[in-house]
């Protein structure tokens, strides 16, 4: 019998919309709850693809790193979103690093168990294909943001994403990590944040940054 709480969590995930109850019951029966602290590495590029991770609470950064310490952020994964779906399909190694930006609560669907369900249920397979398509679109958007958008636009987008993923609506990441998210240096990001404070868009608080004017940030992120 699947755990009732796990079954409830899977049933409310947008990417599993349209999956029959019987298939959700099977997925819930194989899902294993996992937790990760801030800064924990969920997996590293080249690691064996253990399976699909579904974020229940928290925020995960998907990124590539070089031996010299340079990093490229590929995307942010928030509540209700899966990661590691490529490994679930082909059983290959992880294609990027995944780091917890906040405390993360997640469900792990191991490859050996989930692959059988995917092969037997067309609705589950279709849900996975939709996830892959959405991830490709987001990767394209990320490349566009880095290559075509100004730094203030990228910082505004990152602040909105980070605040949306935090239960209190705060941005708790250090400025160095925000800089890594937007592919910029810390001094340049510090200058943008100082400008945002001067314009009343954000406000420093003890636990991080509060978005004083989310609408203004959304307009800026949209190129306004």
From TrEMBL:
Q: CDD domains under this entry?
A: CAP_ED
Keyword terms: DNA-binding, Transcription, Transcription regulation
One of the record's GO molecular function terms: DNA-binding transcription factor activity
Q: What Pfam family is a match, any one?
A: cNMP_binding
Superkingdom of origin organism:
Bacteria
Residues that span the membrane, as ranges: none
Name the InterPro entries on file: cNMP-bd_CS, cNMP-bd_dom, cNMP-bd_dom_sf, Env_Response_Regulators, HTH_CRP, RmlC-like_jellyroll, WH-like_DNA-bd_sf, WH_DNA-bd_sf
Which segment of the chain is annotated as a signal peptide?
Answer: none
Domain annotation Cyclic nucleotide-binding: ranges: 15-135
Any one of the GO CC terms: cytosol
| Residue span, HTH crp-type domain | 149-215
Indicate what this protein is called per its UniProt record: Crp/Fnr family transcriptional regulator
Higher taxonomy: Bacteria, Pseudomonadati, Pseudomonadota, Alphaproteobacteria, Acetobacterales
């Amino acid at each position: 019998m699947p755990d009732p709480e796990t079954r409830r969590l899977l049933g409310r995930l947008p990417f599993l919309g349209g999956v029959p109850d019987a298939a959700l019951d099977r997925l819930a029966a194989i899902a294993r709850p996992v937790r990760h602290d801030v800064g924990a590495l969920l997996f590293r590029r080249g690691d064996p693809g253990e399976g699909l991770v579904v974020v229940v609470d928290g925020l995960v950064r998907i990124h590539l790193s070089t031996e010299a310490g340079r990093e490229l952020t590929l995307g942010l994964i928030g509540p209700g979103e899966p990661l590691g779906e490529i490994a679930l399909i082909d059983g290959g190694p992880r294609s990027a690093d995944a780091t917890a930006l906040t405390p993360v609560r997640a469900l792990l669907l191991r490859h050996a168990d989930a692959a059988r369900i995917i092969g037997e249920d067309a609705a589950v397979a279709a849900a996975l294909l939709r996830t892959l398509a959405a991830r490709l679109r987001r990767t394209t958007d990320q490349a566009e943001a880095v290559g075509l958008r100004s730094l203030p636009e990228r910082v505004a987008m990152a602040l909105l994403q980070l605040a949306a993923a935090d239960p209190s609506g705060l941005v708790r990441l250090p400025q160095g990590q925000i800089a890594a998210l937007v592919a910029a240096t810390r001094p340049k990001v510090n200058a943008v944040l100082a400008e945002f404070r001067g314009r009343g868009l954000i406000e420093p608080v003890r636990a991080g940054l509060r978005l004083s004017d989310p609408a203004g940030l959304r307009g800026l992120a949209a190129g306004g």
